[in-house]
Amino acid sequence: MISLKDIAFKYRSEEAYALDHISISFNAGEWTSIIGHNGSGKSTLVKIIMGIIEDYEGEIYVGNELLTEKNKQRLRRKFAIVFQNPDNQFVGATVEDDVAFGLENLGLEREEMIARTEHALGLVNMLEFRSHEPHRLSGGQKQRVAIAGALALQPEVLILDEATSMLDPAGRNEVLSILWNLHEQLDTTILYITHDLTEIDHSDKVIVMNDGSIVGEGTVEEIYRDKEMLARSSLKVPYTVEISNALLDGSFVTHDELVVRLL
Ligand SMILES: Nc1ncnc2c1ncn2[C@@H]1O[C@H](COP(=O)(O)OP(=O)(O)OP(=O)(O)O)[C@@H](O)[C@H]1O
Ligand SMILES: [Mg+2]
């Protein structure tokens, strides 16, 4: 779906690369998690994909098309993003206005805008809050509205940059379970950026970043098994994975499976 070839970027010429010539692909329909500690380059990568940073080295392919000056607007319409801070992403006075507002540049008929807004709010279980003021919602509800705003654009790739990191545990679980359901129902390609390894269990693929480079790539199990690489990247294996390793002769289980096995 998206392939990055030899992407490099520095914020200032005298500094080290924030992204140091990285190549990766994100497959259509898959949930890819990108993990890495603070400053490892995750958001820089997202900014390059979204066109917020334009003076990068290297090539981006969307499908089989090389992204160029000419086609970038059309190709980037396939992507939608949800950011970290639930309070910085609202412009509308009500939840439904806010979701509809994002559609205004698309030149849709009014009926189509209403239909898409309702459908997207339904997907994140927020339809009953349609006439509420966004700033009065809980953090988790705000992020669900932000996800609805992104889904209303009918993207092929949904990108979430630390979208749960400012939420309390309840809000985080709320948002994660909605995303897992969406991924199963809609086949949307998901690019999930986090520094919290307890959130990656449902990923098809995990990419580990450290100091602007990719230092690991594999299934959740493969990533958890490579403890040295995780330690070098200042990432910690979740407690539940440590427990399952100790209790189950080192055989790997996800968090959900561990709960079932221990019952
Ligand atoms: N606007 C900026 N100007 C200068 N340097 C920046 C800027 N944004 C990020 N950097 C630097 O680029 C590197 C990568 O930062 P980036 O924000 O991509 O990391 P990240 O993995 O998203 O971190 P976090 O987990 O804190 O969100 C860091 O060294 C950071 O200090
Ligand atoms: Mg970041």
Architecture of the largest domain, according to CATH? Answer: 3-Layer(aba) Sandwich
The named CATH superfamily of the largest domain: P-loop containing nucleotide triphosphate hydrolases
Would you tell me the structural class of the helices and strands?
A: alpha/beta
Overall shape: it is globular
Which percent range describes the beta-strand content? 15-25%
Organism: Jeotgalicoccus halotolerans
Subcellular location: Cell membrane
Membrane topology: Peripheral membrane protein
Protein name: Energy-coupling factor transport system ATP-binding protein
Description:
This protein has 263 residues and is an alpha/beta fold. The chain has 2 domains: 2-78 and 155-228, Rossmann fold (3-Layer(aba) Sandwich); 92-153, no CATH class. Helices cover 37% and strands 21% of the residues. The chain contains 10 helices and 10 strands. The protein has helices spanning 42-50, 72-76, 95-101, 110-123, 139-152, 169-186, 220-225, 227-232, 239-247, 255-262, and strands at residues 2-9, 19-26, 31-35, 57-62, 65-66, 79-82, 157-161, 189-194, 205-210, 213-218. The strands form 2 sheets. It has a 6-stranded mixed sheet with strand order 6-7-8-3-9-10, with helices on both faces. Strands 2-1-4-5 form a 4-stranded antiparallel sheet, with helices on one face. The longest helix has 18 residues, at 169-186. The protein is globular and about 60 Å long. The mean pLDDT is 91. It binds adenosine-5'-triphosphate and magnesium ion. It is found in: Cell membrane. Residues 2-236 form the ABC transporter domain. It is a peripheral membrane protein. It comes from Jeotgalicoccus halotolerans.
